[in-house]
């Protein structure tokens, strides 16, 4: 194999694809360069996620080579010349990289150890608006669990049919649901528990490439996303995802409408003093909400804002990061805060977007 490409183009595509290269398995720590049929493609995988991106390059000799991903990115980033050539030298088991007066010889990895990638199919593929899909992902992704001992909760349950796109994520301490109404009905539909990390990587790609439509193909244990010539695939998570509707309370004692930007700013400020697992306290009194925090040996903070609260005063505690995530996910406009009691979960909703809700468990407060 021998190819040449602009350094900036090569670096950009290498940085994109190497994000999914494994850091644990040596055979998967590489990026595969394939020059065939008049095009060049870069591939990487960590067994869970696979990613393939095109490279605008001149092919002088076709072939396939596997190189250490991190090293290759660092080398190309360090170059000053505008163009780079890469030539495989089978006898030396390396690739010669030349840019200006700089010359590198990088040992290749075993191509035989690199897995085959799933090919996109035309049957059973659902085409969805890329921006709407990504916006929905970003509204719920923070609520997915990072605890690998409960793999079913590390995913986002994605459902698409007719004119609705719905995503649900929970780590058992909080729950996010976003229902997006689409402008045009979908042809076909699907439901799958997709690893949150795969969907977050997909969101980066869509934002970077600014594509309009996204093709989604769900198979028995795998999902394949295609955005132009970029293809990302991921294994699906097995197991029963929680029925989120059963987790939602039937009714609430208090329902308050609060200016979203104002309460979010207050929570951000006061949370600075909620450290070492200290909760954020929300104290309600007629006409007023006081947000406070206290961490021994560090300090304390409090701030009040007017709210339309009526009834007996009470105090409820929340994880500051979880509460901030929920408020920030609402976006612009007023926030609806629905509460029952200090020991029951609270619900955060957008006053304008009825399709988003965020359920958060409270923390028991010490008097």
TrEMBL record:
Residues of the DNA polymerase III beta sliding clamp C-terminal domain: 245-364
Start and end residues of each DNA polymerase III beta sliding clamp N-terminal domain: 1-117
InterPro entries given in the database record: DNA_clamp_sf, DNA_polIII_beta, DNA_polIII_beta_C, DNA_polIII_beta_cen, DNA_polIII_beta_N
Molecular functions per Gene Ontology: DNA-directed DNA polymerase activity
Keyword annotations of the record: Cytoplasm, DNA replication, DNA-binding, DNA-directed DNA polymerase, Nucleotidyltransferase, Transferase
Superkingdom of origin organism: Bacteria
SUPFAM superfamilies: DNA clamp
Subcellular location: Cytoplasm
Keyword Metal-binding: no
Keyword Transferase attributed: yes
Residues covered by the DNA polymerase III beta sliding clamp central domain: 128-243
Subunit structure: Forms a ring-shaped head-to-tail homodimer around DNA.
Role played: Confers DNA tethering and processivity to DNA polymerases and other proteins. Acts as a clamp, forming a ring around DNA (a reaction catalyzed by the clamp-loading complex) which diffuses in an ATP-independent manner freely and bidirectionally along dsDNA. Initially characterized for its ability to contact the catalytic subunit of DNA polymerase III (Pol III), a complex, multichain enzyme responsible for most of the replicative synthesis in bacteria; Pol III exhibits 3'-5' exonuclease proofreading activity.
Family recorded in the similarity comment: Belongs to the beta sliding clamp family.
Name the UniProt record assigns to this protein: Beta sliding clamp
Species classification: Bacteria, Bacillati, Actinomycetota, Thermoleophilia, Solirubrobacterales
